[in-house]
Amino acid sequence: MRPKGKTTRLMAWGLCGAVLAAALVTQAAQAAPGQRHGPGDDRTGWTLTETGTDARFRGLSAVSRRTAWAAGSKGTVLRTSDGGRHWRDVSPAGAAEAAMEFRDIEAFDARRAVALAIGEGEASRVFRTDDGGATWTESFRNTDARAFYDCLTFFDSRHGLAMSDPVDGRYRILSTADGGRSWNVLPTAGMPAAQAGEAGFAASGQCLVSSGPKDVWLATGGAATARVLHSADRGLTWTATESTIPAGDPARGVFGLAFRDRTHGIAVGGDYRAGQASPDAAAVTGDGGRTWQRSTTPPTAYRSGVAWVPHSRSTALAVGPTGTDLTTDGGRTWHTVDTGSYDTVDCTQDGGCWAAGEKGRIARMN
Questions:
Q1: Residue 153: Cβ-neighbour burial (10 angstroms; 0-12, 13-18, 19+)
Q2: Are 257 and 235 in contact (CB under 8 A)?
Q3: What is the pTM (predicted TM-score) of this model?
Q4: How far apart are CA 244 and CA 239, in angstroms?
Q5: Is 125 helix (H, G, I), strand (E, B) or coil?
Q6: 253 and 247 Cβ atoms separated by less than 8 Å
Q7: What's the rounded Cα separation, in Å, for the pair 91 and 76?
Q8: Nearest to 271 by CA among 292, 247, 294, 293
């Protein structure tokens, strides 16, 4: 039997998610062209917070409505524990001087987090903190010049994976069983061959995502077709499926994934180059990624990040440099609700949604 206190919290969280979803629907109907939200704006939508930096944040991990972590350019990692009113610079020592590019971060709570710096060879590194970012330990440094790590994900507080672009024709997967304190390269026997020119995009920390204790998905682009790879055994064996998002160019493909359970998922992407058309920039699956269907009304432009609104079976947000889109039917149709620039988005179980992007932009949903 579930404890009464826990039942009450779950009911409250569910109501919070429902209220947020309803408010977003209202905003979608009322939003004026070119609408943009800024600090102090009390309307429903994104409210920018003061970060004190111009770093670009493509890594974002929301713990709750009050606590979130962001990781970005110039070796910058920030953390808030008061809903974004104040951000603390908790960057690893020496990261700014080394101009590290943090593109993903996964936080377990206000004190524990794992961050990924990307790049060729030794530029790809993983760091872990257990004291809120006061100190960090480098737990992995890539020594293979052919590898380039893009994203990481965790199934729980102990088990996680990180992925690299193909090495010797197959994606390389790192695995941890101790919360990111140590990492091992998994065998590639169960990994399908990569297409010519295929790679992942380190654009939002969402090219590798998980749901439940064992399922994980990997997004690709740059090749003739954009694919989504799926593993049901924590990365030991994989199957590959073509998505409906166009590729055929190094700048096109699937950039972000979100699964609300092991079967229902959304993929977003397009062409990241400014001014380039991005038709069919979203797709949905109801069978764990075995098949994908085009969104009938996709976002109007490239989108790099996507997240399900908590405690909703049909509401999700997608973000990109030209705006935020909302779906209330599981990803089949999308409507623009904000025109601010964001690269990534994340929502929490207590009804909080956050977004982050260029020029130090981090916002939370009212």
A1: buried
A2: no
A3: 0.91
A4: 16
A5: strand
A6: yes
A7: 5
A8: 247
Helix, coil or strand: residue 73 = coil
Residue with tokens 């989108």: 303
Instruction: Tell me how far apart the alpha carbons of residues 274 and 74 are, in angstroms, rounded to a whole number.
Output: 23
Phi, psi of 29 (to 5 degrees): -75, -30
Structure tokens at 273: 């180059």
Under 8 Å between Cβ of 252 and 246: yes
How far is residue 36's CA from residue 46's CA, in Å, rounded to a whole number? 8
Pairing of strands 282-285, 160-167: unpaired
pLDDT in tens, 17-65: 555 655 555 554 444 443 444 443 434 589 999 999 999 999 999 999 9
Question: Helix (H, G, I), strand (E, B), or coil: what is residue 266?
Answer: strand
Which token pair is 121? Answer: 């060879």
- Phi, psi for residue 325 in degrees, rounded to 5: -115, 150
Is the separation of the CB atoms in 229 and 237 below 8 Å? no
CB-CB contact of 282 with 267 (8 Å) = yes
Confirm if 147 and 172 have CB atoms less than 8 A apart. Answer: yes
* 197: three-class secondary structure by DSSP: coil
Q: CB burial class (10 A; 0-12, 13-18, 19+) of residue 188?
A: middle
Distances (CA, A) of 145 to 167, 170, 175, 269: 10, 15, 19, 28
Summarised one tens digit per residue, pLDDT across range 164-192 is 999 999 999 999 999 999 999 999 999 99
The burial of 239, by beta-carbon neighbours within 10 Å (0-12 exposed, 13-18 middle, 19 or more buried), is given as middle
